[in-house]
Amino acid sequence: MEQQQPTTTMASVSTAPTATTATTTIQAPKPNPAPLTIADFIDDDDVTEIPTIQSNRKSNTLPIWGNQQTMNLNGLVLENVKESYYYKNHLVEIDSAQQLLDEVFYKVKHLEPWEKGTRKVQGMTGMCGGVRGVGAGGVVSSAFCLLYRFFKVRLTRKQLISMINSRVSPYIRGLGFMYIRYTQPPADLWEWFEPYLVGCLSSIGKGNYGFPLSTIDAHPFFKDDEEEIDPRSGGGDIMTFGQVVRIMLTKLDWYGTLFPRIPVPIQKEIDEKFAERKRAMLFGDGRLEPRRDRDEDR
């Protein structure tokens, strides 16, 4: 009775096994999944490329490096985050990354751990400056409250990619890069940050950072580095995102708190890659080796 269905009738015209096999053979091949594109990650027509680590990793689940509960945050900062009115009475109720992004847009004006003028102890150094007790550091910033909440809701790879490539707010991008620095394996940091680094190497080149216009036009991330952000509470420390990620790769201190320490062997590799980039800029054409003089080829 099932032969009344058109598809089944067509399949039952021939009962020979070979015909059935032929029909199956026609229907069996499936197109290979298309490679991931920027459209799979962010809804922004101005962005046409994404770094390799962002597009080639199949898992949408990000690893968490280091302490799985503290996010590797300074203990004093973390305790002030947990006890802050903003976190306890508002952010803990938000489980949506999109809602948290809205909070960043409206609440975050800098990326320091403390609000300006609220530090209660002068001359503090190191992770906690020898000070104990919630509130000893001052009023913790909305930025760090949101950073920790992003950690608690566990951002996915796609969500994090959307943040660091955002065109909505530089502070969304900034918190995305901070999330990477605090939570991602040190061995992956260069791959995450390298596409955004061109703008921070302008001490040698001039204008277009020592690279020809053809190179810059061919790679949109050269232009992305020109976007600026002011991470300082109260303002006055404007820098490009290239400079931001360079600091994250080479410095531990971040406005009075510390990033997780990068293991020495990995830090040496990062330093050498910076040296290679500097040598490339000295040659002026973006290559990692000297350009041979035309007369040498004759």
UniProtKB/TrEMBL annotation:
<comment type="similarity">
    <text>Belongs to the PRP38 family.</text>
</comment>
<comment type="function">
    <text>Required for pre-mRNA splicing.</text>
</comment>
<feature type="region of interest" description="Disordered">
    <location>
        <begin position="1"/>
        <end position="33"/>
    </location>
</feature>
<keyword id="KW-0507">mRNA processing</keyword>
<dbReference type="GO" id="GO:0000398">
    <property type="term" value="P:mRNA splicing, via spliceosome"/>
</dbReference>
<keyword id="KW-0747">Spliceosome</keyword>
<keyword id="KW-0539">Nucleus</keyword>
<keyword id="KW-0508">mRNA splicing</keyword>
<dbReference type="Pfam" id="PF03371">
    <property type="entry name" value="PRP38"/>
</dbReference>
<protein>
    <recommendedName>
        <fullName>Pre-mRNA-splicing factor 38</fullName>
    </recommendedName>
</protein>
<dbReference type="InterPro" id="IPR005037">
    <property type="entry name" value="PRP38"/>
</dbReference>
<feature type="compositionally biased region" description="Low complexity">
    <location>
        <begin position="1"/>
        <end position="25"/>
    </location>
</feature>
<dbReference type="GO" id="GO:0005681">
    <property type="term" value="C:spliceosomal complex"/>
</dbReference>
